[in-house]
Design brief:
Bit1; alpha+beta; 5-stranded mixed β-sheet; 7 strands; about 140 residues
């Protein structure tokens, strides 16, 4: 039905609050990278308007650090849009600090705790190959 796919990958050894935080941040990254993927506002039977959401399913996968790095490399090689979250971002309190923490991480060995991916279905499938859906 969709020619693109959205996948969020979260490191499996995080605390529950961290996993939920990472998923929330990654979802916003997908929306900003692909505003065309956002549907129309929701309207209830009384005509009240609500927020817009992604118009396609989002799959959430679990991975260890190695799996996240492999997915990152696969996605990068296939020109998939990537929203990254690194461990150091847990110690920040706002967006500018998040960007500084990300820039300070080793680009050849990112301490990834989450990835948001959106791209061609086959490319995202390659990047997430072997990963299990999050439980």
């Amino acid at each position: 039905m969709f020619d693109t796919k959205v996948a969020l990958i979260v490191r499996n050894d995080l605390a529950v609050w961290q996993k939920l935080n990472v998923v929330a941040f990654l979802a916003t990254g997908i929306v900003t990278m692909a505003p065309e993927a956002v549907g129309a506002p929701y309207v209830d039977g009384a005509g009240r308007h609500y927020g817009r959401m992604l118009g396609q399913p989002v799959l959430v996968f679990a991975a260890d650090r190695t799996g996240l790095q492999r997915a990152f490399r696969q996605a990068w090689a296939r020109d998939v849009a990537i929203a990254p979250y690194v461990s150091a971002m847990f110690a920040t309190s706002h967006d500018a600090d998040n960007r500084d923490a990300f820039a300070a991480d080793d680009p050849d060995d990112l301490d990834l705790v989450g990835l948001g991916l959106r791209g061609a279905k086959k490319a995202v499938d390659k990047a997430t190959k072997g990963l299990a859906l999050h439980e």
